[in-house]
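TEACHING EXERCISE
Course module: macromolecular assemblies
Task: Read the component lines below, then compare them to the predicted structure of the full complex.
Student: A.B.
Group: 4
Components provided:
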Amino acid sequence: MATVTKTWKLFIGGAFPRTESGRTIKAVAGGTVHHLCKASRKDLRDAVEAARAAQPRWAASTAYLRGQILYRLAEMLEARRGEFIEAIRATSRATPRKAKAEVEASIEHVVSFAGWTDKIAIVLGSQNPVAGPFYTFTGIEATGVVGVLAPDESPLLGALALVCPALAAGNAVVLVASERHPIPALVLSEALATSDVPDGVCNILTGDHAELVLQMAGHRDIDAIVAGAKGKQAATLKAGAAENMKRVTIVDPASDFTDARWRSPIAFRGVTEAKTIWMPSMA
Amino acid sequence: MQPAPTVVWSYAPAPETFPVEISQEHGLFIGGTFVDPRSRKHFGTINPATEKELSRVAEAGKADVDAAVKAAQKAFKGWSRLRPAERAGHLFRIARRIQERARELAVLESIDNGKPIKETRDVDVPLVAQHFFHHAGWCDKLAHAVPGIDPRPIGVCAQVIPWNFPLLMAAWKIAPALACGNTVVLKPAETTPLTALRLAEILQEVDLPPGVVNIITGAGETGRLLVEHPNVQKVAFTGSTEVGKRIARACAGTDKRLTLELGGKSPNIVFADAPMDQAIEGIVNGIWFNQGQVCCAGSRLLVEESVVDEVIGRLTHRMRSLRVGNPLDKNTDVGAINSRAQLERVNRFIECGVREGADRIVCFDGALPDTGYWVAPTLFRGVQPAHTIAREEIFGPVLTVLTFRTPDEAIARANDTNYGLSAGVWTSRASKAYEVAAGVKAGVVWLNTFNQFDATSPFGGFKESGFGREGGRAGLAAYLA
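Instructor-supplied answer key:
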């Protein structure tokens, strides 16, 4: 029987469209040539629109529910453990042991953030003892639509390290997969599609980083960017802040994403906003 | 609606007479002493209520900015390694000395800025002292301040502040920076440099180590030289969104940490079930506090349609009793606009509002002083969401009134702006108040109150109102590596 090879597509609004541009990039993985979508400016725009539409409801769902949904995502990753290991090995030539370790760390990472959703406000929020007759407290809210640029090292764990804090806090995400090793992120899109993460809450594009970085930086409806980037791309993204004051967090793409800091509260910097509410405590 | 008063009460002048001496010329505060500018340039700062020059202050040029940054770099090693309790000691002493010299600072602020003495005396200066006192206490508790980080200072902080709360903004910038072990070069606004320079005197008095805080005066070019200086590790700016964007662009290719507190067009939402007496006072405070020259001013009044006539009737009645004039008079509610440039900007917006078809209502029937920069409290009815005066930050005593029918519509209208600094919500129903508070995209939400500030309480915006917070532990995070 002939084998059927998979056509890799984009993941936007819970659906798997081809790029509207018709452009592809060649990726060789495991001896097979794959033609992946080279996402265009319009694909990015569609993904941002899907994210924008999905975000308010995701943010308004209870932290407990978001936690359960992320845990369900971890279950879906677990179910695809073998496929992830294969994808990582095939594209990045990682040793089987290294690929396995990355997948295990990735699953653990998602579980960790499933447990973060209902603790963000506890750890980062505050009651403020102001010098007056007011009850004042600071809550933590999602920033909105977050663009994530996945680093090439650890193509799965690196992507999840940057995506999970944003999702846990109630943001919707447009993830641009690792440029060199995009296939693990595409397997992730299938896990997302079968998880309970609502359509549009996490969208995934593949393509040319230099091109997409420029478009993300200039996009006025992206509220924040978290990017494994350096040099010129990092500067371009930061200059994008000047467009609409988007919050830009640059991380070293070569970071060790198994380090505890990626699961610490600092992961929420740049994807959360402090909202302080005052009310009179005496009439 | 209450009838218009038949008896016109007049008030005898009640001037604040505390004497404040102002030197004719001010140098730059670099390395713990006042020095003449290498640029050899000075410029005048005036009293906006009289247009009289108060003093000549130095205009820092490139060599001066270099010298100030160098002094801050030199001081960093000692200050950052000082025992936390000793750092705290310095900040506590600054707070105490500010309290002792409070009246002098309040008068000086009113003279240089134009804001009423009752505000500088009761709001600005007390908050300044509190900010230093609060942050003094953080020095030896930084390990507990920001979850997830091993607290280390960042380095030299370039801080550029606006003219609307000159001394308060200096405190908001300097206190957390110092508490975290950083050193500072601060540039006050060119129209309001005097209280920051007086603060420099206080820093000398309490023996703050030289170079820990440097204060250099100048205009936009001095600010640009400072934030773009290669030996600065952190940039903090409060001011217009336009300049904030320029700074963001300038810092993009660097590793500088950046926080920006920018403009606003904040909604003040009044529901039909609001406690109406308090709401009217809240509207007045929201837009006419500091002549509306407040980034978080409640400049867009959103009123539930069924009560719009009542609200405007009561508001215009209240507007008649606002006293506009001499900032040093203790009865003054609305003082002078800070500068001629700002006066012209506000007047342009007022003309634009009339031209675009909104109804201007001015209830002030006294005479505005002959000299100085004044705008009577102004209200616009019949404003459409697309009108310029409903969208752009005016930064003056001009209120626009829009209406809504449902809480959802109120939230949608509140969020129909690029800004997201603050919001006010007036209703007697707690559940509605919280629903709206959750829905508005704003960094600070005041429920049945407005324009409240506190050192323990984070302040800062969503969206194009900037990023980062000031006050509380969210504010400390901006000054720790």
